[in-house]
Amino acid sequence: MTPPKNKKTRADEDDEQSMSDEGVGNLFSGGAAAPSNALAGWATPQTTTPAPAAPAAPAAPVAPRPVAVVPAPAREAVEEQPLAVEDADTAKPVGFYVSANVANRFRKLRKQSDLTHTQIVFLAVEAAVEKGIAQVVEDARRAPKFQSKLFAVAPDNTDLRGLGPVQLQYKPTRAQRAVIDRLVTEAGLPDHTKFLAIVLDQYLPGRRDS
Amino acid sequence: MASPFEAPDPSQQQAQIPWAALSHIFMFGNGKGGVGKSSVSANAAGKAARSGLRTLIIDCNAQGNIARELGYKRAEWNDGGAGLLEALRNGTPLQPRQGVRENLDVVMGGPALGDEFGIFFHTLLAKEGPHAYLRLLMCLLPIAHEYQIIILDTPPENPSLQRLALSAARWLIIPVKSDGGAEDGLAQIGLEFSYVKFVSQINPHLALLGVLLFDTGRTYTGIHADVRRQVQKVLGEEAHMFKHLIGHTESVARLVRKRGLLVQELAELRTEGDRTVPGTVEGLAADYEGFTEEMFARALELRKEAAA
């Protein structure tokens, strides 16, 4: 007769009980049992001098900012699982279009620094996040051709500094692309080409697009 | 631009880091998942805290495993690792959540340590080279002296987070299971250990405290001997296997996660008369007691030897 689902049989309980009741094995070391005051020894300070305040980290420390609370996504309790490694295999070349000026500055940095295309793009994105996405977008807008005090003028997302006809490529994984897509949405831009073009224009060394 | 494979300037590093004051930092790591890193981390931290030691546990997992072990997964203050990421990004001191248990504070892990961390750390590494691996330690230093025990729980197969933790830790404990396949995980963490200690010398004081057999049948002596051979084959003859092991008790393992309690806490409920808790909890609680005593005693002994 099959026992009800999730109901342990007497044999299962006995098995666990016998495994737990057995004395602790002494298979790997012949050393004496740990003293019961093992933890008491850690209550004593290690040195007379406590660790000093942190020295300057490569990134200049700033006053702690309020921690943004990220609601934990709802997940069922699951057994500890190994992290998926498939994302690394999802990296694919992705093209985006920039002005000739941006493309030249991109290639110059690539030669001088030996960074990959992908690394340069990520550095530019990171710099944009640090500056503030909204500010980056605002700085990329050219003065509108039509201005009116009476009528609201919609922002022109086709006339941004950095955009142009030259294609560059980078190779994000699926997960990395998802992060950039979120930033594109945050920026209020229609696609990632415009986002990457403007962040690169503001990040790359050299004269920015006028 | 610095190469990630280039050793940092040791004189610059040694001038900044008070290594002598950091021998209370323990890391649980393995290249393989599901071997008990988070369970043992949480229960060892709980044991230290119950003994009256000011204890900090840092959850370096994108899955936020410690939240499950300590029962705060759905707490409104669970920031999913955002605080840790923010500190790493800015190089500012860690800000633990205090009082998750008496004497126990937590730096929370979670989804923020996934993709966002990956992009951030990728760019930091390109900027700083191997020195970037000291970022976690730099953020920990301002508060390290406030604690008597610090425990790092790390994810499998994530070299960046493992190296960050290895660069901060003094002691590495590797839990393994006896169900086969231990070698791959041992080899992976062994490579990261070698990189941090020997190749780049980012943390020359790092030491392997020992290997712990987790979730195993107590009477399976032949299998235990086989695991010992695997450990010695991968990590060397001198690799220490802890005398105590954590026995297989599936019903209790499921119940602690369901209730968000540590094993000792569940055992106390049983002692108080809660018969929904299986009697096998007492054996498992004894396993954890024995192991954590052995772990802290061994570290204390090695610390004294090093100081002598």
UniProtKB/TrEMBL annotation, chain A:
The protein's superkingdom reads Bacteria
Residue numbers spanned by region Disordered: 1-59
- Residue ranges annotated as compositionally biased, kind Low complexity, are 43-59
- Quote the protein name from its UniProt record: Uncharacterized protein
UniProtKB/TrEMBL annotation, chain B:
Q: What is this protein called?
A: AAA family ATPase
Reading the lineage from the top rank, the first entry is Bacteria
PANTHER family xrefs = P-LOOP CONTAINING NUCLEOSIDE TRIPHOSPHATE HYDROLASE (PTHR13696), PARA FAMILY PROTEIN CT_582 (PTHR13696:SF52)
Please list the residue ranges annotated as the AAA domain: 25-197
Report the InterPro entries cross-referenced here.
AAA_dom (IPR025669), DNA_Partitioning_ATPase (IPR050678), P-loop_NTPase (IPR027417)
Protein species of origin:
Streptomyces beihaiensis
Q: Pfam families attached here?
A: AAA_31
Instruction: Please name the CDD domains in this protein's record.
Output: ParAB_family (cd02042)
